[in-house]
Design a protein that fits this description.
The chain is built from five helices and seven strands; from the N terminus they run βαααβββαβαββ. The chain has 163 residues and is an alpha+beta fold. The strands form two sheets. It has a four-stranded antiparallel beta sheet with strand order 1-2-3-4, with helices on both faces. Strands 5-7-6 form a three-stranded antiparallel beta sheet, covered by helices on one side. A hairpin with a 6-residue loop joins strand 2 and strand 3.
Length: 163
């Protein structure tokens, strides 16, 4: 597995990834229109430019296939103090790549980068409480539960991780 810089050439593969039910099931519950994905893609590139962080496409080292996305989306979600002022961590993988350790390996690399970048003394994440695999992964990565919050009508568990 390798993290790569976001590039225009990867947009179609990212749009395919975001159209998979196993990806959007716990992230809004429905596929997003391609126009919205294009806006998010461009926002991610802008986040790298303006904030110094963002999301990386994740590719298999052996085939070059795009299988996921990890990193730090700049989303301004409105969860309030203790969350909004920190970079948010996130990860998603296609079904065939889930349960194989790719998410752990990719997020370990992303967090190692984050810890060394000096961007903040902590990062946060939010997870649907029914997404048991991601809840487990957050704990394995050193995230601790902080509180519950609502986002777009869904209850989410908020987490924080100290650098």
């Amino acid at each position: 597995m390798v993290l790569v810089s976001p590039a225009r050439a990867d947009f179609e593969a990212l749009a395919r990834l975001w159209s998979l039910p196993e990806v959007y099931r716990f992230i809004g519950g429905e596929a997003r229109p391609k126009s919205q994905l294009w806006g998010a893609f461009l926002a991610n590139i802008g986040a790298w430019t303006e904030m110094g962080y963002g999301m990386w496409p994740v590719k298999r080292r052996d085939t070059g296939a795009l299988i996921g996305q990890v990193g730090f989306p700049c989303a301004m979600r409105g969860h309030g103090a203790g969350f909004d002022e920190y970079p948010e961590a996130g990860w998603l993988f296609e079904g065939r790549a889930q349960g194989q350790g790719f998410a752990y390996e990719a997020m370990q690399a992303a967090l190692t980068w984050f810890d060394g970048a000096g961007l903040a003394d902590r990062c946060v994440c939010m997870i649907d409480p029914q997404n048991t695999p991601s809840m487990r992964l957050a704990g394995k990565l050193g995230f601790a539960k902080t509180r519950l919050s609502m986002f777009e009508g869904d209850e989410l568990q908020l987490f924080a991780r100290q650098v």
